[in-house]
Amino acid sequence: MIKNDLFLRALKGETVERPPVWMMRQAGRYLPEFRALKAKYDFFTRCRTPELASEITVQPIDIIGPDAAILFSDILVIPQAMNIEVEMKDGIGPWLPNPIRSLKDLEQVVVPDVHEELGYVMEAIKLTKEQLDNRVPLIGFAGSPWTILCYAVQGQGSKNFDKAKELCFSQPEAAHKLLQMITDTTIAYLKAKVAAGVNAIQVFDSWGGMLSPVDYQEFSWKYIQQIVDALKDETEVIVFGKGCWFALQEMAQSGASALGVDWTCSARNARYLTGGNITLQGNFDPSRLLSPPADIKKMVKQMIDEFGKDKYIANLGHGILPNIPVDNARAFVDAVKEYQG
Ligand code: CP3
Question: Can you give the pTM of this predicted structure?
Fold first, then answer.
């Protein structure tokens, strides 16, 4: 039994004493303890070494005290396992030297055996569960097929992912083939993560908001829905689409347990669009953690008042930034823990 099960209860829509809290990218560069390991081991060594991945996962639990842990890894281990080379370059971020730009390029891409290619993630989950010792639940995650396609085709981060869109709009057959391969791999991967012990999963559609509402349905949502359908009877599923407020109404009908919201969508609008019945997660502006701790605490109270304490998981509206003082991150988490309606 998990001692602090607030997060799982909120996902099930149960009444809670206070909302649970965690932060996207909570295992990250704002923590000196994380930077110490980053200085010693390169990015994918940290991902592939279960002892390191579990140590990094547990760091924020010990230092900041959120109500859930999220396994340290990356969404880009999926294209890597599909035989698309991925590097992480300092100062640039993800770098894929052989981006997919045609049906011909797809010949090299495979739907792998996830146990063979990504067994190290399952080992990291088992070790992390031991180290968490049932203190808090563990979240597993994957990128949405569209967000993975963005990197696989663009080859690196981008302001507009123009090459990714070009493939979708000029070679839709290739785009859909790649999206389906990513979807099949992701479903097998997330099922393996659940079998290895994660208590919930989150799908990150970080670049869904780059698409028009119509294109979003065609190139992103269709595939996320397949993932939700395949996982929802096995675990709690959270879908976070950055900039995807326009799709909240449909997302609320998908069978997901909760939906992530970014800071550009008000709590009232998110509740209205989703019909008021599904758990929502978010949506503090990550840059607002640069405000003084006393201001953070006031704003967090206001955020919870607006979403309501039930069917709600306090979080940021996107990942925590590397320049956030640790005390400010702690003020965010403490403010939720101190919440009294
Ligand atoms: O939330 C957590 O603490 C778990 C760990 C996690 C990482 N990446 C570790 C990481 C998670 C959930 C991710 C997801 C991820 N990765 C997303 C979706 C979420 C989001 O933020 O939109 C995306 C788009 C990626 C791709 C990716 N990985 C980028 C763009 C970068 C570079 C970021 C940068 O600022 O350099 C990464 C690298 C990465 N993944 C880091 C971390 C902690 C930083 C680099 C490092 O530690 O060496």
Answer: 0.97
